[in-house]
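Suppose a colleague, Dr. K., hands you the sequence of a protein chain of 126 amino acids and asks what its three-dimensional shape might be. Before reaching for any lab equipment, you can write down a predicted structure in token form. Begin with the sequence itself:
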Amino acid sequence: MNFSLGTGEASVSNHQPTNGEQARYDVLHQGVARQVEPSLVAVLPGRSPGKKLLILQSRHTSALVAMMTSKVGDSLFQKMYTAHQSPRYFEMVVMNEIEGDHVIQSWPVAMHAYTKNPPNGADVTQ
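The predicted structure, expressed as tokens, is then:
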């Protein structure tokens, strides 16, 4: 994958940043109990044709679920998704603002199309 979550979910590395993207997304501390944390969402090809694998990687996966199931989160996702030509498979960096264990907000900051072949060797570009 192009993005990888670092030790302790404290950062996401972007191995091939495109124009305007950061090479690394780190936790941003905004106070004793409030911080903005990076996380990953990926939709990858499964081992069988037509199957997909959803990966959520985060210190607070509930923040990702909340983003993906809310109207605001879906709208932010759709905007980024269409701006990247609606790839069949993708990986995305999401920032989550957290206070204690409470999710304040989440938003996508980077997306890359995933074009590598699944383990069974099928072509994902078709």
